[in-house]
Amino acid sequence: MNIFIAGIDGYLGWTLAQYLTIKGYRVTGADALLRREWVEEVDGQSALPIASIQERLSAFQAAYGRQIEFYEGNLLEYDFIQDCLRQAQPDVIIHLGEMPSAPYSMIDQAHAFFTQQNNVLGNLNLLWAMKETCPDAHLVKLGTMGEYGTPDLDIPEGFFEVEYRGRTDRLPFPRQAGSFYHWSKVHDSNNTMYACKIWGLRSTDIMQGVVFGTRFPGMCDRPEMRTRLDYDQCFGTVINRFCCQAVIGHPLTVYGEGLQRRGFIPLQDAMQCLTLASENPPEAGEYRVFNQFENTYSIVELARLVQSAAKTLGLDVSIQHIENPRNEVPRHHYQPERQKLVELGYQPTHDIIGEIRAMLEDLLPHRDHILHKTDTLVPDIHWDGTRKRAQVFETVASASVSD
Amino acid sequence: MNIFIAGIDGYLGWTLAQYLTIKGYRVTGADALLRREWVEEVDGQSALPIASIQERLSAFQAAYGRQIEFYEGNLLEYDFIQDCLRQAQPDVIIHLGEMPSAPYSMIDQAHAFFTQQNNVLGNLNLLWAMKETCPDAHLVKLGTMGEYGTPDLDIPEGFFEVEYRGRTDRLPFPRQAGSFYHWSKVHDSNNTMYACKIWGLRSTDIMQGVVFGTRFPGMCDRPEMRTRLDYDQCFGTVINRFCCQAVIGHPLTVYGEGLQRRGFIPLQDAMQCLTLASENPPEAGEYRVFNQFENTYSIVELARLVQSAAKTLGLDVSIQHIENPRNEVPRHHYQPERQKLVELGYQPTHDIIGEIRAMLEDLLPHRDHILHKTDTLVPDIHWDGTRKRAQVFETVASASVSD
């Protein structure tokens, strides 16, 4: 099976390239290397120092004796993506090549504009290029659980049977995203659903929970194989950020009460799921949606889990409740379905404490490196378009937590 | 009331500028004059010869003694739209400034890309510029009934109460648009709904039916006051196209069986409704959706109505069923709600035959002009990305129609 990864230099992309190659698949990929620029722009850095893409590719070949074909370029360039697909002749296209940060998209007009331009038009180009060059390929597209928002209903996998005024139909489940970034993913989902309908393309649209972790079992330990791990306010997702905070003794910063509940998935489970989706393509013309997460947690639960895991490593961390810079509902129903991947064989890791501890162990040797950049551990990007450091509401010392 | 019209040089824009001025409102507007270029690009022309924007504005001032402030520029230029709003200080912004053609968006990758870039990013810029310069203004944004597609349910006005697995919530009604153009309007609607939610903007999102007609009662008869009327496969909407066909003795080209049913609205009713929406703003933070159409008709019904109206003017036209170049469901349920505008005072014209006859009378003096450009009366843009003249299935002579 030939697999093409758009966004192969990213957090998921570089990990997945290794995971799939170890599984025996031929992997090629493209990247514009923009993630590195965005993180630098917001004064962030990878907590685990990472190698250049050239160093990564060379080390990969040295370790596995297999070459990853790499194309540097941008999905907004239609000729580029057409050339990539003509060269790669993929059976599966895994599209991870988007700007993935909600706060980054909310900084100002320019960043909202950039986000929707980059994501929506890049994905649209990819759909056209598939239609023109490889209409039988299977597009595994990365969406996000954040597309659904927090409706006061259970969340099905993309579609639901609905009765209205005595009639019934199967309809797309309404999306209520929570940032211009999340809306860009909704727009992508809609365009992709439509391309499948009119052109007979096949796609699995992955509504993925928030990913955390540094590795999968059996991942090569060479520094060039490390994937990035961001902890700034834009690109650092919550568990990753908490772990970096724990390692340097910074309070774990919970936005508001922390009762917002979301789906989360360890990096190794994300690899497992993306592989399962790739290995089990839908029919031509079928657009299917998988909700991809291991479990749901509230943010304050996660802070306590990180606190506990840190304690077993002798790290004493407190939890800090700070002003929520986002616009999100503080308390809400949250019951998303997650059945389709299980039916394909997904076996959830079910050991979040173990995962977090493994992350902390990977991060501890880089404590000094992380300490070099700590300015954006407390957010200042507000959803109302202003920039001001979020206020601290309350700090709960670790001693008061029973674990 | 200060009203700012984005897209003031278009079919609706130029008509609305006159209509609102006659009502006594101060109107300013902007346009990039792209519609003139797009129509030329697809080898079309306005059936009614139209004046340049400068001639229009001068004639307007001569006729009414009032100036329309006009800014030439593009919504994709954020500085431009900010400057416009700072100058205009609008109470109401009526956003008609988008690329409005489904077939144009389906020509190829470049046209799909252009359509979503132009519409989605232009609207996004407008939202940011409102937030920055006039957050209390009311955005009346032109969407389309085509955003809903043809679900097997009744279509409410934007939102519906839905029960699912024992819980209920009020959710956005799922959209299932039928072209990359229509999806661009859905993306706009989503971004606009979100801007209202997080920034407290107020917006009326108009899901408008297909507009037809050449004038409103009392419209000045000077040639510079005429609005454009397109009849090519891209920018000519169905009743307008049928009327132009009738005037030159071309068969009325019905796509497929013609049992597709859509909402339609006379130009004068569209003016009435857009004015009612403008005069009755929602609360700050409110995003409301109006379905704006006079009635629903199937395409073949409309062909028969145009045929009948033409007959009263001595025009003998046949109806031709041709291959449908679009991807749409041939027979379907269609029961959209239209209540909110009626509650605000909308009085439907209810005389479609009269409207069509008035159009035919306006068009007849321009028969030779229309005959100059007839190449795109039969479509060749197919939804599968190919270009080939649609095949003729069947021609029904006018004699066989009982009316």
**Fraction of residues in β-strands of chain A:** 15-25%
The pLDDT mean of chain A sits at 96
Instruction: For the record, give the distance between the C-alpha atoms at the N and C termini of chain A, rounded to a whole number.
Output: 47 Å
The residue ranges of chain A in which pLDDT falls below 50 over 5 or more consecutive positions are 399-403
Main interface: chain pair and counts: A-B, 51 and 51 residues
Number of strand segments of chain A: 15
Structural class of chain A: alpha/beta
Q: What is the helix content of chain A?
A: 25-40%
Give the topology string of chain A: H per helix, E per strand. EHEHHEHEHHEEEHEEHEEHEEHEHHHE
- Alpha carbon gyration radius of chain A: 20 Å
Strand order of the largest sheet of chain A: 3-2-1-4-5-8-12
